Amino acid sequence: MPSLRLGNIAPDFEAETTAGPIKFHEWIGDSWAVLFSHPGDFTPVCTTELGEVARRSKDFAARNVKVIGISANGLQDHNKWIVDINEFGAKTGPTDVQFPIIADQDRKISVLYDMLDEQDATNRDAKGLPFTIRTVFVIDPKKVIRLTVAYPASTGRNFDEIIRVIDSLQLGDKHKITTPVNWNKGDDVIVHPAVNNEDAKKIFPETTFHKQPYLRTTPLKV
């Protein structure tokens, strides 16, 4: 199947998870969602990531974001892995994995979301199935895919960056703005190109008009 693109509707599915069975779109509801995949349970890099997501639970909740993991193992392994994650995470801060982890032993959901490593013929489990690559999907309440990132197995994900992008997307949906390079919440933003200069002055009274006519920046007080 073709790769999923930004702007596509995230495919719906039913799955067994550590929090019980779900229907994905129904589970998202009116929230944003982060779906992030793992090649297998009891893997070192992924263990640190799941612990970090658990520690950042309040940050995600404050942004109306639900998080859900997926790994190519069954529920029994998932539940054992959660014990390890919480135990390891306790060394660096309180960790309590409450978000669901999808069981995807048969790779059905991984195939649906094009999350399989098909490039490396040696990257297979004992049954010969390809491992899930480490992908992140950010999905909005309309079930539209707004961000995709694929990470190599050797490099842990940066959840500060994922939260930063969510902040940018949510502000852009609410206000007529975009965000510049290295932007962080609280920094000046860019007036959206679709807003003409007259409207920019009305909507954003503190707009700075730069020498480049297409570049206008403003503080955003929210």
TrEMBL record:
Organismal lineage: Eukaryota, Fungi, Dikarya, Basidiomycota, Agaricomycotina
Function: Thiol-specific peroxidase that catalyzes the reduction of hydrogen peroxide and organic hydroperoxides to water and alcohols, respectively.
Cellular component, GO annotation: cytosol; mitochondrion
Biological process terms in GO annotation: cell redox homeostasis
Entry annotated with the keyword Oxidoreductase: yes
SUPFAM superfamilies the record matches: Thioredoxin-like (SSF52833)
Domain Thioredoxin: 4-171
Family annotation (PANTHER family): MCG48959-RELATED, PEROXIREDOXIN-6
Active site as annotated: 46 (cysteine sulfenic acid (-soh) intermediate)
Keyword Oxidoreductase attached: yes
Keywords from the named record: Antioxidant, Oxidoreductase, Peroxidase, Redox-active center
Gene Ontology molecular function: any one: peroxiredoxin activity
Protein name (Swiss-Prot/TrEMBL): 1-Cys peroxiredoxin
One Pfam family matching this protein: AhpC-TSA
Gene3D superfamilies reported for this sequence: Antioxidant, Horf6, Chain A, domain2, Glutaredoxin
InterPro entries tied to this protein: AhpC/TSA (IPR000866), Peroxiredoxin_AhpC-typ (IPR024706), Peroxiredoxin_C (IPR019479), PRX_1cys (IPR045020), Thioredoxin-like_sf (IPR036249), Thioredoxin_domain (IPR013766)
Assigned protein family: Belongs to the peroxiredoxin family. Prx6 subfamily.
Domain of life, source organism: Eukaryota
